[in-house]
Amino acid sequence: MGNGKNKDYFLGIDLGGTKILAGVFDAKLELQGDSKLSTKADRGVTAVIDRIARCAREALDECDLDLKQIRGLGVGAPGAADSESGRIIIAPNLPGWKDIPLKKELEKRLGVPVFVGNDCNVCTLGVFEQEYKARPRHLAGIFIGTGIGAGLILNGELYGGHNLTAGEVGHMVIEINGPKCGCGNRGCFEALASRTAIFRIIQSAVKDGQKTVLTDMLGSGLKDMRSGDLRKAIRRGDKFVEKTVLEAAEYAGVGVANVINLLNPEVVVLGGGLIEALQDEMMPVIVKTAKEHALSGTSSGIEIKASKLGDHAGITGAAVLARRGVT
Amino acid sequence: MGNGKNKDYFLGIDLGGTKILAGVFDAKLELQGDSKLSTKADRGVTAVIDRIARCAREALDECDLDLKQIRGLGVGAPGAADSESGRIIIAPNLPGWKDIPLKKELEKRLGVPVFVGNDCNVCTLGVFEQEYKARPRHLAGIFIGTGIGAGLILNGELYGGHNLTAGEVGHMVIEINGPKCGCGNRGCFEALASRTAIFRIIQSAVKDGQKTVLTDMLGSGLKDMRSGDLRKAIRRGDKFVEKTVLEAAEYAGVGVANVINLLNPEVVVLGGGLIEALQDEMMPVIVKTAKEHALSGTSSGIEIKASKLGDHAGITGAAVLARRGVT
To answer: Any bridge partners for residue A20, and if so which?
Structure first.
């Protein structure tokens, strides 16, 4: 693929709490090669930055390209990012990540221009440019996994807000007397519809004697339960798991409707680990519930879909960030 | 005030379901004169448009100006407005108002350039330009009265969304199993914290035997209860009314927090009839609850305040709309 001459490639990095993904893209956003590494966040900030650089080099090696052929590198990080200065303001899931000059550190290590952004914003950017060809004026990306976050494209541009923290949809209250959330409040979207919320409900029911095939699959402690296990359990006919997942999908539909009523976007795209694994089960319920709860004038003509980019949304969006940055 | 020569005045019209307000402003947005007329919506669309024109002329007469001195007229209407074509797409509280060419009809009657907008957007514009001197980049105006609506200034501009219906914050669900809302869903912001919601709770409690000074003031049917009556009852020491109002304020605080978490504005301004009448009682609770429910990074540096424009927000914003339109 790489011909050794063409310098028109971009690196996209998805920095997560447990893993780092790197992807090399050509200027048309076609993926040329990728690589994956565990984050090892507990080794500290410098070690993680070293691992990002290593993951980037490995992705390049995969597709026989080298850093000289890279015009720019983008990173989506799990926290608040100041895209102007290239600093990570804070990343709550990465110990020690407070006011880290990530752009500067990566440029030192790799010698290419670096651009940083918040992970949900970056995923939304990837969906917007790659999947939707930058056509919609207003698009909301809602990502449901361990937590829930969103990125907003308003008037064709990423919207950051006053402190660059816009899109904290996971802490929108939708059931004021609902279950306790990690943030200290009750009934947040994230406490009702995230993978964490579903696991909490299942684990607590199992403790109370609920039968489920999940205990056959994973043992009575349900250790290392993943989204894919929920899908397997449902496909094996486990009605309890199905009911729990579909209830979470209903909450997710209400969360989507709240975003629609407030922002009246043209497109709402859902992504994240839980949606990827349980798309077939959850999406019909999410779409139905969202349309029931959105005002008719507001939801007319709106498209609510799961992203096709799956796990690649982050690296794609990070490459878009780099492409936007250098041009 | 009018010297018969200067043509630098603007008319602002606030078209409501029960009353029409008109105000004449100079180019610095100082109010020169105003006028008020009942809407008489049941007389039909043409009659209401005639009354808007009459109200405008009466406001001019109040301050010894005439239409020749008016550069433009703005109208805030209770519904979806297409500001490009000057049509009211739909106004649910005004019978017959569907696809009405309000701009064209008023220009025919008054001979000045006319600009139309949604009432919450227009009020927000007034607060933004007059009260905040167009300084904040991101400002949300939330108006609590019979219903609840919002206007959004994002990146310094009014945000409309795909169908120009953005800001339908009143139908954001915050208590999924809460009381039924007019829209058919349960637990909408409007069903929990509007004047209508408070009146419903009070009326139902009185039916169940609850004692309140409101029945001394208004009779046992609580006919024609207004926001000001709630304030009077609280100031006479009515603990039941106080508790009901403060609970609504808590819900309002959660609604405000949801907007903050999603949009991370710099300023949230509250207005509307309920806030005007009960500002001293409600605002401390709204601010406290909103700050408790907003993520700390998101709410840091944010200002949450009641508008000082009160009843004049609509006419001021409509004048701003006209001033923006002609320049």
So the answer is: A15, A37
Kindly report the nearest CA distance between residue B274 and chain A, in angstroms.
21
Query: Do A162 and B265 lie within an 8 Å CB cutoff?
Result: yes
Q: How far is A5 from chain B (nearest CA, A)?
A: 41
- Return the exposure string of A58-86: e unless at least 16 CB atoms fall within 10 Å of the residue's CB, then b: ebbebbebebebbbbbbbbbbbbbbbeeb
DSSP class of A209: T
> Are the CB atoms for B144 and B138 separated by under 8 Å?
no
Least CB–CB distance from B173: residue in A254, A264, A302 = A254
**Partner-chain contact A165 B264, CB within 8 Å:** yes
- The two tokens of residue A313 are 């949304």
What is the per-residue pLDDT across B171-220, written as a single tens digit (0 to 9) for each?
Answer: 999 999 999 998 899 999 999 999 999 999 999 999 999 999 999 999 98
What is the per-residue pLDDT across A14-50, written as a single tens digit (0 to 9) for each?
999 889 999 999 999 999 999 999 999 999 999 999 9
CA distance B35 to B96: 25
pTM of the model: 0.94
CB pairs under 8 A between A and B: 145
Are residues B169 and A137, on separate chains, in Cβ contact within 8 Å? no
